[in-house]
Description:
By secondary structure, the protein is α/β, with parallel strands linked by helices. It has 6 helices and 6 strands. 38% of the residues lie in helices and 22% in strands. The chain has a 6-stranded mixed beta sheet with strand order 2-3-1-4-5-6, sandwiched between helices. Helix 4 crosses helix 6. The model has no long low-confidence stretch (mean pLDDT 93).
Amino acid sequence: MTSEILLAGFGGQGILFAGKVLAYCGLSAGLEVSWLPSYGPEMRGGTCNCSVILSDDPIGSPTVYEPDILMVMNEPSFVKFIDHAKSGSKVFIDSTLVDSRTDRKDIELYEIPATSLAEEQGLKGGANIILLGLITAKTGIISDKDVKSAFEKIVPPTKPQLIENNLRAIKLGQSYNA
């Protein structure tokens, strides 16, 4: 099993954090893992994407050119990456911030108003993790146990409330009927 995942959006949306969560989930599950961030010089507000590969086999290259799973959190990322998704891939978009749609019939498209849901549920800045929850529900690539383990590793011990907020965001995405 190899999953090539591309996460994309603006800097400040938590793209790299979501990628790091996926990478730690893979490590927790005993998989081979690659995590490769890419962002423009503007940082917050500039373009940002992250390639994550989870595999049973050694990984030859960390770059994802044709993702099996694509997560986009803004319009420019949708326009830039939608045609790169492999045939049969699963594409997850934040419909709060992405207005465009595709005519492609060879992909599975999941839309969730992640940014709006995060604000409504008091999880400001949690849209990335809500999308990650939807990804876990629709792909099964990582388990809830591995997600919890990843948050416990990534979140500093001085901010334990962030673990609970992130787990709430995961559950919100998992329960969304896309």
